[in-house]
Design goal:
about 210 residues, about 60% helix, about 0% strand, disordered N terminus
Length: about 210
């Protein structure tokens, strides 16, 4: 089917048809586009990066095995991520506890709005162009990863899907099979907790004039 570089993925019906036909190029395109985010979400449920990788592998096997049964009631991405979450949950219950997510992205990503909790810091990474600033940004990223690890699993996966993966509220509700009200509550609690921890951090590093 050729390369999808630069053009994103085609519509769902094209994707599904190609997967059912065993199109390796389409499968490779999905791997390139979604696997990184799938690892992040899986890591919300399991205790090691290796476990998360195995969850993603198991998910792709389940997708290949189950694509003929895909009914199109949700987007193909939602369907894949729902399989991922269910697979990760099953693995997670076999582990003693979920440890902090250790693979936070270097760019600071969608958590930049959390810095506005106090002091007017509108972006966690931008605005620190100097080497000293970059070191501070790296420290904040580590703090966010630690903060995510403190959250209850349900709050952690909701904030990961919304603020790291950029999923919409509707998509999160479909993936996790929760109500819109439940999603809002979980997201609000998670964001409030992370903002609070970041606000405490900013107060602790604020230097006197």
């Amino acid at each position: 089917m050729g390369s999808f570089e630069g053009g994103g993925l085609p519509p769902d019906d094209v994707v599904v048809t190609a997967l059912r036909a065993g199109d390796e190029a389409m499968f490779a395109a999905l791997l390139d586009t979604w696997s990184r985010g799938m690892l992040r979400v899986a890591r919300s449920y399991v205790s090691t990066d290796h476990s998360a990788e195995e969850v993603v592998q198991d998910t792709w096997l389940a997708v290949v095995d189950g694509i003929d049964g895909f009914e199109g009631r949700a987007s193909i991405k939602t369907w894949v991520f729902r399989i991922l979450v269910n697979t990760a949950k099953k693995r997670g219950v076999r582990e003693s506890r979920t440890l902090p997510w250790s693979a936070f992205e270097q760019d600071g990503g969608p958590f930049r709005d959390f810095g506005a909790a106090r002091g007017g810091q509108a972006d966690l990474a931008a605005g620190w162009p100097t080497p000293e600033g970059e070191a501070l940004a790296a420290e904040v990223r580590a703090l966010i990863a630690e903060a995510l690890g403190r959250l209850p699993p349900r709050q952690r996966v909701v904030i990961t899907l919304r603020d790291v993966e950029g999923c919409t509220s509707d998509e999160v509700c479909e993936i996790l099979e929760i109500s819109a009200a439940n999603q809002r509550v979980l997201l609000h609690r998670a964001r409030t907790a992370v903002r609070g921890w970041l606000a405490d951090y900013y107060e602790s590093v604020k230097q006197p004039e």
